[in-house]
Write a structure and sequence with these properties.
Radius of gyration: 22 Å
CATH topology of the largest domain: Trna Endonuclease, Chain: A, domain 1
Strand order of the largest sheet: 1-2-3-4-5
Order of helices and strands: HHHHHEEEHEHEHH
Helix content: 55-70%
Number of strands: 5
Structural class: alpha/beta
Shape: elongated
Largest sheet: 5 strands, mixed
CATH class of the largest domain: Alpha Beta
Number of helices: 9
CATH architecture of the largest domain: 3-Layer(aba) Sandwich
């Protein structure tokens, strides 16, 4: 009972600070001061709210981020959708092999798989180390830590590749370790880019051979 009261109390107090933060810009006085007070109130509201409410706000914010426009024709859209569905069925090792083949279509060179789920490559005089992770749920900060605990030190730019969308916490955790995340949206863009100068039929056939493992 006490825990429920504490939870409800945090929601009430957090809501009060949230309303103060949202209405602060419209208060009398200098706008800069009002904005600063509003930001402070919103930050306090965020940390006062219980963990499940904070997670909901983060998820809502992530979903509302504007998607990068992609001018895909119908064939490209069908191809990307089909390939992503096939990718979801792969093991981590086969996902690495699949990603290696995709990078070759995009002009990456000197591709070396070491160990099973890591891949090194060069592109436009830059060196990359990719760590491929296959999952059935959003890519979280815990997933970032789990991957990097197993990964050998990155050569050049370290990139975590996943078939799922990355959470904001995952992006922060990766950046703190000097890694980037290429998640499902980035994978879709790479697949779309791979069809630009290559026959869709040939590309689809080649990639499908990997995806049918």
């Amino acid at each position: 009972m006490k825990k429920n009261k504490t939870h409800a109390g945090r929601i009430i107090v957090g809501t009060i600070f949230l309303m103060v933060g949202l209405t602060a810009p419209f208060d009398s006085g200098p706008l800069s001061d009002n904005l600063a007070a509003g930001v402070v109130a919103l930050v306090m509201a965020y940390f006062i709210f219980p963990k499940n409410i904070r997670a909901w706000f983060l998820g809502l914010f992530h979903q509302r981020q504007p998607a990068q426009p992609q001018k895909l024709n119908a064939d490209q859209t069908d191809f990307v959708t089909y390939e992503l569905q096939k990718v979801d069925q792969l093991s981590a090792t086969n996902f690495t092999n699949y990603f290696k083949l995709l990078l070759t279509k995009l002009g990456y060179a000197h591709l070396v798989v070491i160990p099973a789920v890591q891949l090194q490559a060069t592109h436009k005089n830059l060196t990359y180390t990719f760590y491929c992770d296959i999952s059935n749920s959003p890519f979280s900060a815990q997933d970032v830590n789990a991957c990097l605990q197993q990964a050998a030190p990155a050569v050049g730019q370290g990139i975590l590749v996943t078939n799922q969308m990355a959470t904001p916490h995952a992006i922060e955790a990766a950046q703190a370790r000097h890694y980037q995340i290429w998640d499902r949206s980035a994978l879709a863009e790479l697949l779309a880019d791979s069809t630009v100068n290559v026959s869709n039929a040939t590309l689809a056939h080649d990639l499908e051979n990997w995806a049918d493992f």
